[in-house]
Amino acid sequence: METQSQLKPSLWPFCFSVKGHVKMLRLVLTVTSMILFIIAQAPEPYIVITGFEATVIFFFIILYILRLDQMMKWLFWPLLDIINSVVTTLFMIIISVLALMPETTTLIILGGTDTPR
C-alpha cells in the first residue's frame, strides 16, 4: 500500500529545477526594474508594462508550483512559455530603448537596462 507522501505530489520539484530558478530570476529582475522605475518617477507606461510582466511571470510560477500544467494537458505549455518570453522580450526591449531617451534619469536607465532579454 502506498504511503501518504507517495500519493501527494510534492510542490518543491519546480522550485529546485533549472526552469524554476530561471522563472524566479526573471521575476526578480522584472520587479527590480519596476521598483527602479517607481523610484525614478518614470512615465506610467514603463511601470504598468513591467508590473504586467511581473504579474504574468508570477502566475506562471504559481501554475507550475501547483502542477496545473500536468492537469490541463490540452494546452501546450512549452509553446505558451515561448510566446510569453518573446512578448516579454519585445516589451522590455522597447522600454529599454525608450528609457534611454534624453529626458531620462539614471534610475530610469538602470530600470531599462536591468530587464531580461
UniProtKB/TrEMBL annotation:
Gene Ontology annotations for the cellular component aspect, listed alphabetically: membrane
MARVEL domain mapped to chain residues: 14-117
UniProt subcellular location: Membrane
TM spans (from-to): 21-40, 46-66, 78-101
Taxonomic superkingdom: Eukaryota
Record's bilayer topology term: Multi-pass membrane protein
Primary residence: membrane
Keywords, sorted A to Z: Membrane, Transmembrane, Transmembrane helix
InterPro entries: Marvel, MARVEL-CKLF_proteins
PANTHER family to which the protein is assigned, alphabetical: CHEMOKINE-LIKE FACTOR, MARVEL-CONTAINING POTENTIAL LIPID RAFT-ASSOCIATED PROTEIN
Protein name: Chemokine-like factor isoform X9
Gene, per the UniProt record: LOC101705246
